[in-house]
Amino acid sequence: MLQGKKLVQSMFARRGYRIVRSESDVRYRPVAADARNSASLLHEILPVVQHNALTGEWPTPEFLENYFDADRLAMARLLLDQCDAEDVEIAGKRVLDIGCHAGCLLRLMHARYKETSLFGCDISDVKLAMAKRACPDAELFFSALSDLPRSSRYDVVFLMEVLEHTVDPEAVVRRLLDIVSATGTLILTVPDGRRDQFPAKEYHAEFDSYAGHINFWSPESWHYFLARIAPEWKLRTGTLSTGHLFAALSMKNKAN
């Protein structure tokens, strides 16, 4: 058997190929802190939608319990860990979370970074009501991506898991760079397109986006996509241990 394996390896080697062991797709396992963060968040936001349990109106408590599980909170925590590793300054800065949903990222930032001015926006009054309970100190407002006030500038802008829904993700990134301060940073995450199989579903003309996913980036194409859009920006890309693709863009002349 061993000689047969060596013979096969030798045959492929003569043609310039090498046989390697394929690593299994190991899913990241949340830690106890992620479960505690999930339970704490749900305790705050579920009262907002408790009546939906009877009417079936979206979002139902059951949906939120499944959505904001330990895996979701682990992803948000690891994103902040990545920001710390990339020396993204958050403490004491003006920080905007676009599409803040129920405020899980805002809540984690409030606990981790002191003296930070937190802002969040979304296109759902229900989500904003939940976010207000999750992070009472954050300043929240209703806004679509296209309606973000150009007069406002933020030191750190987060857009998590949104670009995969949008019809024109390039225009969205350019729009977001307009509201980042001269020494600020834009933080983006998207699913890994090699694993993402979420269908497009219905189209929302008002927001020029789909309920599901229509854009799929590999780790390599993710980097090239952003480098082409913002060649004058310092670009750092990577993959979180949950499998989500990460990017941080800051001006190249940003002071160290």
UniProtKB/TrEMBL annotation:
Gene Ontology molecular functions: methyltransferase activity
Keyword Transferase on entry: yes
Any one Gene Ontology BP term: methylation
One Pfam family per UniProt: Methyltransf_23
InterPro entries according to UniProt: SAM-dependent_MTases_sf
Keywords: Methyltransferase, Transferase
Annotated TM spans: none
The keyword Methyltransferase is annotated on this UniProt entry: yes
The name this protein goes by in its record: 2-polyprenyl-3-methyl-5-hydroxy-6-metoxy-1, 4-benzoquinol methylase
